[in-house]
């Protein structure tokens, strides 16, 4: 009997080792797939344009240059788009988190009058919406066209994020609120002093989702903005990367067309690196809340 158990344990141990080995190989491949393009873009942003176009990536320091970053920081269009994106993403996140947390907590309270109706209403809105043209007409009728509010307000409150917040709040024990009421705390004090401090994980997760989503967005700007000075960075990058055009105002020097194309290649990679910096800076600070917020908010 004991020999049978030892054989089962040995077989189980071999199976576990095999599964772990396969997982390590699989994860290593994912790391390579993700890392190689990032390294290519990063190195390409430091290479001289003619080296990048003729030879590809070079590890020779003699071929490296900071000219792409210098031109970006000197160029008003790209830097203006960068700061516009910061404003849009920050405003979108603040507005979305404020209303999502307030609505999510309200829907988690059992005493809310008409709670079932509001839940069904939000769920219906998640699956069915008016579409692009009715949304555009609403934005135009509100006088938001060609203003930053056309980017910040529409879509700031997502129903899925609202469901995550509601589920997270429902997981908080009611005994905490009852104890606070016995001590004389009002509903607002309970929300401000007890609920919000406990909701840091879901707040940070929703903030990260909202910021990343808005930072990478460009379609709304294409529809609602005509003034190029209001363009976000992603729309500027779209013109450079997809349409492969660099406006004359983007480059200070009066260069020949061939030289402009070489400079455009360098600006592409440098712009991608700069566009990725806010997300790379944010994620380490949000990481400790990410797993807990997603798991607690998505279960129950």
From TrEMBL:
The chain crosses the membrane at residues 21-43, 86-105, 117-137, 149-169, 190-212, 266-286. CDD domains: TM_PBP2. Keywords: Cell membrane, Membrane, Transmembrane, Transmembrane helix, Transport. SUPFAM superfamilies: MetI-like. It is a multi-pass membrane protein. Residues 82-285 form the ABC transmembrane type-1 domain. It is found in: Cell membrane. Belongs to the binding-protein-dependent transport system permease family. This is Aldouronate transport system permease protein. It comes from Evansella vedderi. The lineage of its organism: Bacteria, Bacillati, Bacillota, Bacilli, Bacillales.
């Amino acid at each position: 009997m004991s020999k049978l158990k030892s054989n089962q344990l040995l077989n189980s141990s071999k199976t576990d080792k095999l599964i772990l080995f396969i997982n390590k190989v699989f994860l290593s491949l994912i790391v390579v797939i993700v890392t190689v393009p990032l390294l290519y873009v990063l190195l390409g942003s430091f290479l001289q344009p003619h080296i990048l176009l003729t030879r590809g990536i070079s590890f020779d320091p003699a071929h490296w240059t900071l000219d792409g970053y210098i031109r970006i920081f000197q160029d008003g269009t790209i830097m203006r788009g960068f700061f516009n994106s910061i404003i849009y993403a920050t405003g979108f996140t603040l507005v979305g988190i404020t209303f999502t947390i307030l609505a999510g907590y309200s829907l988690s309270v059992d005493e809310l009058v008409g709670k079932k109706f509001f839940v069904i209403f939000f769920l219906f809105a998640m699956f069915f919406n008016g579409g692009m043209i009715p949304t555009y007409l609403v934005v135009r009728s509100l006088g938001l066209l060609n203003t930053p509010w056309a980017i910040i307000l529409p879509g700031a409150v997502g129903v899925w994020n609202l469901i995550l917040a509601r589920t997270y709040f429902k997981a908080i024990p009611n005994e905490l609120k009852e104890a606070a009421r016995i001590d004389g705390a009002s509903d607002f004090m309970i929300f401000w002093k007890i609920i919000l401090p406990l909701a840091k994980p879901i707040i940070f997760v929703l903030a990260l989702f909202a910021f990343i989503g808005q930072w990478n967005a460009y379609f709304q700007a294409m529809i609602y903005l005509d003034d190029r000075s209001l363009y976000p960075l992603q729309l500027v990058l779209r013109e450079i990367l997809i349409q492969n055009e660099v406006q004359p105002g983007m480059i200070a020097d009066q260069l020949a067309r061939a030289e402009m194309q070489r400079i455009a290649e360098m600006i592409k990679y440098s712009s991608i690196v700069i566009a990725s910096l806010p997300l790379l800076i944010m994620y380490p600070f949000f990481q400790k809340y990410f797993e807990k917020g997603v798991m607690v908010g998505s279960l129950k």
